[in-house]
Amino acid sequence: EIVLTQSPGTLSLSPGERATLTCRASQFVSSVYIAWYQQKRGQAPRLLIQGASTRAPGIPDRFSGSGSGTDFTLTISRLEPEDFAVYYCLRYGSSPLYTFGQGTKLEIK
Amino acid sequence: QITLKESGPTLVKPTQTLTLTCTFSGFSLSSNGVGVGWIRQPPGKALEWLALIYWDEDDRYSPSLKGRLTITKGSSENQVVLTMTNMDPVDTGTYYCAHKDESGNFDFWGQGSLVTVSS
């Protein structure tokens, strides 16, 4: 069973700074099947990145995804106040069909 | 525009069976490649995938919960139903349904339904 480990658990940054969030898989994962989600308090998750690097419709270009194999990264180039939230990576595959990471909380420093 | 909404009880007792309904619009569950999934989130904790039903009524379950879950199409063509048996307080959380696109992504989510398990 594939496990996704996100780091750091909490990231404290200021608006305007660059954020780098990591998702590491315990086994090889095709980049086609990696997605990133943003979840604000009290809201449902929102799809940000699909296929490891493709922004979902309507997602600002300050969000970017990269990676391959077992290591994937979500980068927010210049943090806006509305970007402070919890971020999850998700892998789609088999056994189990879907696996979420444990999340990274991005908080205002 | 795709929308989904969860409905069901807010409080269930331990050992009872939970039945949640996802009512959706803006897509057909008969369309090739489409699916509807259920995901839950205990208070303050991470997301956990539970189950998925495909357009052809094939289904998949989380291995850790497989024996307790059943996902089916509802009586209306725009509904999906999730049942979870033998509820326990650790099952307390927000339950979301979501649209799966042809690539496997959950691209649209419902607002979530908070379920508390308590006697």
What is the mean pLDDT of chain A?
A: 97
Number of strands of chain A: 11
The CA-CA distance between the termini of chain A, in Å, is: 36 Å
**What is the string of SSEs of chain A from the N terminus onward?**
EEEEEEEEEEE
Which segments of chain A are poorly predicted (pLDDT under 50) over 5 or more consecutive residues?
none
Structure annotation, total helices of chain B: 0
Largest sheet of chain A: 7 strands, mixed
Summarize the structure.
With 109 residues, chain A is mainly β. Chain A is 0% helix and 50% strand. Chain B is globular, with a radius of gyration of 13 Å.
List the defining traits of the structure above:
heterodimer, A: mainly beta, seven-stranded mixed beta sheet, globular, B: 119 residues, four-stranded antiparallel beta sheet
Explain this structure to me?
The complex is a heterodimer of chains A (about 110) and B (about 120). Chain A is mostly beta strands and about 110 residues long. Chain A is built from no helices and eleven strands. Chain A has strands at about 5, 10-15, 20-25, 35-40, 45-50, 55, 65-70, 70-75, 85-90, 100, 105-109. In chain A, strands 2, 4, 5, 6, 9, 10 and 11 form a seven-stranded mixed β-sheet that branches. A four-stranded antiparallel β-sheet of chain A has the order 1-3-8-7, with no helix packed on it. Chain A is globular and about 40 Å long. The model of chain A has no long low-confidence stretch (mean pLDDT about 95). With about 120 residues, chain B is an all-beta fold. Chain B contains no helices and eleven strands. Chain B has strands at about 5, 10, 20-25, 35-40, 50-55, 60, 70-75, 80-85, 95-100, 105-110, 115. In chain B, strands 2, 4, 5, 6, 9, 10 and 11 form a seven-stranded mixed β-sheet that branches. In chain B, strands 1-3-8-7 form a four-stranded antiparallel β-sheet, with no helix packed on it. In chain B, a hairpin with a 5-residue loop joins strand 9 and strand 10. The mean pLDDT of chain B is about 95. Classes of the chains: A mainly beta (about 110), B mainly beta (about 120). The interface of A and B includes residues 35, 56, 88 and 90 of A.
